[in-house]
């Protein structure tokens, strides 16, 4: 009988003692975005916390800001993060981190040392996006209040995802992928940049939430190129797109091509699916590599009078689109080989897989080798559908 | 006989398969990828092949002695006293030690990635209580329980595979044979030692299968199923996470499940997936604890093994807390351990085999009548 | 962890009890004596044994020139049968011929029997007081004649009972509606009406020193495993108790394992369920005085099979089975998983859900586990209250109570809305299970899991599940592993567990239960 | 201190659970083996709970086998 009494007793003891990992929901400060800057050899960490009662769908309290940011300094990231607890009302909780913003200054100095904590600590996952703040420190970016998606980080997260999916000059790069790039010898890292328009101070105010045309906005611009972990420069939109074509990151995008007869008017071709293959063509006498893009497309918009019912027209459009894409790819390759003079396009990995023996010899000095390699590019675009009209109504309008 | 229960051949297969997967599933990708990198699958297959050969050897050893258990084999080989002492050493220095490692593995895992603030003691106590309860219930009951677990493991693994399918990057396992054979062989040795040589403990369980002569196929099948699964998981990890990250990760499979993300909806399920290795680690620890209790009880000729389950659990608990100070110690110790395990699991049975060959010659002369009394 | 029940100790207690009661012993001794030739003495003795009970009726009359008396218990006999008996002796002119049947006793008695037996119900000859008392108490009438040391028992049992009505605990949409009632005889008849086979065996025994309850063990000879039948009899014979009022009295005596929350004996009030079980080779125990019939062995999967599974098409039945099994898990783990996730593994939640839950928890003063306990206990109270109250009020109380209290608690900020949802789903899932006693087991286990989850999160739940699995595999029902056919895995018997194959595919009987005569139907192409 | 208490509690619990089994085997070999293993466990547990670092058996193994490992 004694045992029957004893078992629940033990359970009770365990229960009373065991609250080690027990964290009640309302005691968590849910961190959704984090920014890292470096000022005078000290890291400055900015953490964006959600204010649940201001965000929740049912009993949302619109008078309060949906997000709060806290900032602290420290010799290491962890020290800074722990210092945040001094100012934050609740213990910050990181698994729901959506986005990590790296300040431009830190990016120029090299940010690798700052990232170890994020890959080591079990509280951090590796599926949040990483972006670089262009022309601003990271904390300015995190302080902006944005409409529609109340949580700024969620806004940035979704925006990056959609633009990467349907427009393609940006790059939705998760932390895990970034680490993979940083450790690869055959590819240098690139990170999308985020930029602030307007006055950073204005963005912190609730008014920014209450207008239909907010004065301060966040927008993604171009791609930052890193050598190892140091920011070396920015790609413009054309090069960024070219980069995405090369690394097979394009899911869907728009190619605007000039009308065949009328160079001033344009028509849009919507790429539905683009598939890129990087290949090593030959090793002798010199290594030669190639980029092959195969894309399926639809006609999305026609801004001039052309006869779409003729196969020849479509062929011409295909050719123009191919040319346009090719130009972008060339510009990206040119940027890599001539401007930056190192390989952020991943040709090194192709070489690694194709010629492991040769790779062993050049691994250490690949960037030098890369500059002299001939890279061919070939693009094929197949236009299959015209949307729900054949010729545009523009054709019928008298001149 | 200390154990009166009998298990079926099918249950034996399941036991072997789950035992192979246990704990290994958590860390094997990083062990395989550490040296062999993207060629992990080759060293995996190599390790599996040698592993199956070893398993057949263990079975032959058991067959040679008419399927009596390990202690009786040793007694027949070396005589009563030497046999018993060697057996005692084997159970204390190898099986019990292995059990402490397994227990510590689950504790370390929990306190490293899932419940950081929980004291490791609490984790160990909870796990041990259930394991000891299982050991007390006996072989028959806990093998039946294993059968209950199988569908869950299959379900979770299929879910794991399907959800990771979109993230596979085939280029991750290229190029093949980049660094030649040497690292592949080195990795496969670790792989051989880690799950396959540990099969030696089944020498204590084969006697309790209802048709021991049929266990050869079951033993091999279980090993191949378990080993195949480990290779599959390793390849999957390398395909999704990449060889370098896999090698650097302490719990690569957990990292693997962390990457599951289907349309932002089905994600963050690693805690559920952790159930797979809870189950397999549970099975492994159960078998090891059971075997050490049975072995020690037999060495001392006790009437039943159940009586010493709790004190052995106590020893296990203390040892598991003080066996090594940190993970770094463990990582450094691994090559030594490989050798140590190799001595116990490969060299030791081989010596037994040799001795039995020498003595077996005599036995044949004196006729079959003496075989039973040995 | 769970000890076998201390059978011996219980029996000792019983023996002690009877020893103390020495007067009762003396009476018992008296009951063992044979009738005397003196009618008056016999009547006096019977009256004495029955303590002059006022419901004992003694009718004096002259039979063949001798004083005779008919004894019966008022209210327990069928008056029609008694009247019939009197009419019969009055109407028989031959009666006079036998006026001196007592002179040659042996022969005479035989004739006496012949004479009386023709039109009346079954007659038994008795010699001892004990037999007379038992007969009277069972509702029969006893005929005693002066200077005859034999008595006659006239079967006149018949008291008002409930008619065969619709089942109140196991309803079906399609299927037979009749249910057992309190009369054991009718119950066995209901079963025999379904199985018209000479191999259906009904063995009666009387259990209960005081209540003298009649218990019938029913099996189909040749289908049920003989060893199992013997085992059932052996366990029933071991029972030594004063009274059996309900089948649970027997259930607790014959179950294999006492320290387990899981039922190892099945009970039902539907004859069709019993018939189906008998056809599978199981054994039924019908107890007089209760509509609930016991079925053994009862395995884990049996508690998820409803009668209607076999009266609906197989695909529907399969779907319902799966639904039931998921409901089983929800009901057992629902609040536990919720607690584990929101207290330990917040990272598992999608961000918007996490934020919404956090906003709801804002201002709730209790930790989640306490919150869950409050809600669960309230719910259990409401449920019990609903059961005990008259039907019409009962339902209102539970619904109104749940709604009003839930709503008010959320409004007052004591409980978060999500917790109300979780607890409500858990409770409803519990109702889906066809077996009420399994539902209770789950309710008990649910609380254990809640504690585990509150202490160790999902790790605690996993540990609890392992212990549960070990425990489930360790118990047996009449020697058959409880988890059969899942563990040990019998692939052929999976046809009627998680899914139900079409009936023409259910060719064999469960292997471990009926070990011979395994074929149920010929294998049609 | 609290740690030592918990240790003793665990040990007591073990004894309590095994009480019946131990009574069953009065002063036999079973009891001797039981208590020797139990004492080893208890002593180690007490040492550990007192905060004294125990030498890990692995160090011994390392010491013996390290040279061999290097050779391989």
Automatic annotation (TrEMBL), chain A:
It holds the Pfam family Spore_GerAC_N. Residues 221-387 form the Spore germination GerAC-like C-terminal domain. Keywords: Germination, Lipoprotein, Membrane, Palmitate, Signal. Residues 22-195 form the Spore germination protein N-terminal domain. It comes from the Bacteria. Belongs to the GerABKC lipoprotein family. PANTHER family: SPORE GERMINATION PROTEIN B3 (PTHR35789:SF1). This is Uncharacterized protein. The lineage of its organism: Bacteria, Bacillati, Bacillota, Bacilli, Bacillales.
Automatic annotation (TrEMBL), chain D:
This is Uncharacterized protein. The lineage of its organism: Bacteria, Bacillati, Bacillota, Bacilli, Bacillales. It comes from Fictibacillus aquaticus. Keywords: Membrane, Transmembrane, Transmembrane helix. The chain crosses the membrane at residues 34-52.
